[in-house]
Every structure is written in C-alpha cells, then in structure tokens.
Batch of 2 targets.
Target 1
Amino acid sequence: MARTDEILFRKQLDIRLLRHTFQRQTGLAVFALLWLPAAALAASGSWVASVPGTLVAMSDRPSETRRATPPPGTPVGEGVISQVQWRWELPPGQSVNAWLCHSQSCLALPMQRGSTRAFAGVSAQTPLHFRFTLPQGHRPVRVQGMQIIVNYQ
C-alpha cells in the first residue's frame, strides 16, 4: 500500500510541475507579446497610386508629376516602406531620363517598369513622384500610365 501511495504522490507532483511550467511559459509568451515594439506588431500592406500623364519637353529642366500618396483610409499608421514598384508608358521609339523621388532624394530609373528597396525604412506615408527629362536632341513626349505601388511593414 505504501508503494502505491508513493507512486500516486509522484504522479501528482509531476502533474503540478507540468502545470506550473505551462503557466510560466504561457505567462512569458503573453508578457513578450505585450511588450514587443508597436512596429513589430504593425500589419504590413501596400498602397497603389496612379499619376496623371505629363508632357516632357526639355532636356535641361525636369518635368515633375503630381505627388502620389496613400489613398484615404489606407491603414499605413507608422509603417515604413519595404519595396516600391513603378511603371510608366511611352510612345514606341521614344525615351526619357527618369527618376522616382521623395522629398529627400531621387533614384534614377533604368527602365519603364521595375522595383526597388532603395526607399526601405522611409515612412510609408511619404509622397512619391516621378521626375523626367528628355535626352539631348529629342522631341517632346507625353509620359502616361504612371503607377506606383508601395509595400510597407
């Protein structure tokens, strides 16, 4: 009988120990979730903006487009840019020099569509715009179909 009581006591002790360990681990997990920085818990997302066409008429003076901003109601919050995609269209056989810009800097764009991580860490609420010039000796051209997609976290 004493042996049975000892086994029963050990099983109860093991169960208590397991319960204590589980409660402690659960408590630590809840604590960690409550204290993680808000940026780490921020939802990621994206916003898309289309920009009206613009006439590029000079090689020595840039043409800038209207600023692209997140559409109203986009839950950007404190999100920061992780990647930006762009595109624009030109008539066949035409070319321009192009940049994608925000208030602090511009990035030269080597082609009519692409993506970059050069703006990573910049606030996802930051307005972006295109800047264009003509190559020397080219005739004026209308750039259309401009779109910017901002992925943020």
Target 2
Amino acid sequence: MTKKQLSILGLGIVLSRVMFAQDSDRVVPNAVNIPIVSESRPTSRPEHPAEIVYYADAYADHYGVPRQLVYAFITQESGWKPRAVSAKGAAGLMQLMPATAAHYGVTDPFNISENIGAGVHYLADLIATFKDWRLAVASYYCGSTYPQKRGLRYANPDVVAYVRAIQAHYSKELMLSSSHQNTQGVNP
C-alpha cells in the first residue's frame, strides 16, 4: 500500500494520509468485504436513503476517499436516484459509462452496492493517477485523455463547470458534516 497526502480541489484542505490498495487491473466491487445493509440501520444523513449512505460510507472508507466527496459525486451525477440514466448512457448513482462499469466488474449498474463500489474505486484510481483532485474530477467527467495531456491548462467550459459543481457540493457536504459533528451528543 502507498500513502499519499492530497489537497482537494485547490481548496487548500489537506486531507489526512489516504491509503490506496494495490489491486489488480480488474476488481469486482462485490469482492470487497462490505456486508449487505440492514433496512433498519440508522443513518447520519436522514435526507438521503439509508442504504445509499451506508454503501457510500463503506466504499469511501475502503478506498480512502472522503465520504463528503462521494456524496458530492452522487449529488452531481444522479441526484441520489439509483436508476438515473444520462443521454450518453451513463447509469446509476455514480453515472458509470458501460466500459467503466465493465472494467470494474459491474453486472448491474442499478445495483446500489455495485455502482457505488465501482464509482468510488474508479475515483480512487483517478486520484492516485493524477495526484490532483481537480484533474481526477475532470477525468471522471470526460475521461482521462485531455486532462492527462493538458493538465490544469485544460479549459473545456463544460469540464470546468463540472469541477466547480463538484467543488461546491463537496464544500457543502463538509459544512454539513461539520455541523452534524458539532451537534452530536448535545441535548436540546
């Protein structure tokens, strides 16, 4: 395993050491030892379905990606709708393109666990490849060809808008999780 200290989306927020597993080129998300969610499991995010939050948290922790960043992607990509499909054919909560889903062993892109597992794994791979969260986010949106060639000079307006949207969602999620932590254990 390698440890990498990363700054996210140019916000200057330095994350704690992030661990990335050295996996084979093809990983079946269900091979990860994540137990199936119980319907009665409480969630720290009552505004979102408990099953989605459970798998988002479990895979974020497993792949070393901040939970809030995973929430930001789910918000931007599908609006927390497990059966979302884009005009270009991306499917599920993390809006996986068919080739990406196949690469990560997804057999049902609408299966919450498979979709989130593959999407978070893909995001972790991009972060490890680019070492810059902005380029990883841009590559998630448009593929890695142009961000890899142009780096931070890549200025496609749609991609720039997407990176900014993820940044805004991520900032909001950080504030929500911070305010949630501040209210834990406080009796009204």
